[in-house]
Amino acid sequence: MQGFRMEAYTGFAQVYDIFMDNVPYEEWADNIRNMLMKYGVKDGLILDLGCGTGNITRRLADYGYDMIGIDISEEMLGIAIENKYEEDGEVLPGSKREDILYLNQDMRSFELYGTIGAVICSCDSMNYILKEEDLKQIFRLVNNYLDPGGIFLFDMNTEYKYKNILGDNVIAENREDCSFIWENYYNETDNLNEYQVTIFVKSEIDEKENSRQKAVGNRYEKFSETHIQKAYSLERIKELLIEAGMEFIGVYDGYSEAAPAENTERVCFLARERYQQGKEYHAD
Fold it and tell me: Is residue 5 situated within a structural domain?
């Protein structure tokens, strides 16, 4: 997750997967794989930008891809590293979870040692990039590190979602060991959605305190974070991809091959590497 205030996804990292348990990761990973296969990326090295706790990274490793995950949050990567050794569902024969390489880098200036077959970016990580020049720089880097004809697949929240679903709404959830309040403020002038997230996590207590703690009630730690995302028009993303030197293939309604509708909340963009004279494999 990139492009927001640097303290974001610190306290929230430890409960991120609990509150994201409604995300259809299995379905997304399956559709991502099908799209990669369709465009000839049947194996090889894949980069997951803004990989978070590695939910998509692990699943693509289960399909036999060699995976690199990049994220700016050390806390999220720490959980990803722990989770790659745990089974969240069936681990397929030939899985390469053990070989996943996680790197703590900013996607706006990421560096690799060579080219890769595809780059993916899910869970609206690209919406955290608030400046067009930064977004275009990411696209340039992706094009720089992709194999000839390599594929770039990423999703984004739509303007419709910010205006009609999230904007000026409060989302609250209460679980057994934690709860959060998620306040949204959408500025249509700047196309920015600010999330004020307050999290309460039940503290771990030792055995000596256990009986006393039961008598006085549970103890919770409080974390507060601010996240900001930006809404981009579909046409502008297409333009930025082309300006960055990539070949634009299409934009779809979520992880499908259907065209976006007026009320689409998440879109997926598909682009392809295009050769550039003097191409070098390092960050600009």
Answer: no
